[in-house]
Amino acid sequence: MKQPITGYHKDAEDHWVAELACGHGQHVRHDPPWMERPWVTTEEGRNNHLGVELNCVRCDEAGLKVATALLEECRKTLIESYESAGISGLCDEGQFESAVGSIQTLDLNKIVAKALSTTKG
After folding, report:
1. How far is the CA of 117 from the CAs of 59, 66, 113, 120, 121, in angstroms?
2. Dihedral, CA of residue 39, residue 43, residue 46 and residue 49, to nearest 10
3. How many other β-carbons are positioned within 10 Å of the β-carbon of residue 62?
4. CA–CA separation, 30 vs 39, rounded Å?
5. Contact yes or no for 58/121 (Cβ under 8 A)
6. Strands (DSSP E) found in the chain
7. 18: closest CA among 40, 35, 2, 44?
8. pLDDT per residue as tens digits for the range 4-53
9. What are phi and psi of 33, to 5 degrees?
């Protein structure tokens, strides 16, 4: 997920870390030939890159966790509702309608909070 650079600091090993708007940090090393970022070496270069968006892997991981949790909860709710409606004697169409309607009862905030509770940092 793209996040703009809001500042910089040096880590314990004296490497520059870009502070991203999401609150995560990302190293921005100039380490030729592997990584070419000469702008990191000067204050002017760093200042010129404020606002530039970097891909935040931690945000990507959190987004995937949330999407996976939502998908799993929807799947579980659909199956449970469909089976329960069948036991209650509803026809296939009634079971389907019941299952689809059950999705509206999901507490999305709770699902997201649970998914993110293991994604700190």
Report:
1. 13, 10, 6, 7, 10
2. -100
3. 21
4. 8
5. yes
6. 2-10, 16-20, 25-27, 53-55
7. 40
8. 999 999 999 999 999 999 999 999 998 888 889 999 999 999 999 999 99
9. -90, 0
**CA geometry: angle 55, 71, 79, nearest 5 deg:** 175
Structural tokens at position 98: 């019941």
Look at residue 24 and give its three-state secondary structure: coil
- Cis peptide bond prior to 32, omega within 30° of 0: no
Per-residue pLDDT of 50-102, as tens digits, reads: 999 999 988 888 888 899 999 999 999 999 999 999 999 999 999 999 999 99
Q: Give Cβ neighbours of residue 54 (< 8 Å, ≥ 6 apart).
A: 2, 3, 5, 18, 20, 26, 28
The tokens of 113 are what?
Answer: 């909070």
Name the residue among 16, 2, 9 with its Cα closest to residue 52.
Answer: 2
Burial of 81 (0-12, 13-18, 19+ CB in 10 A): buried
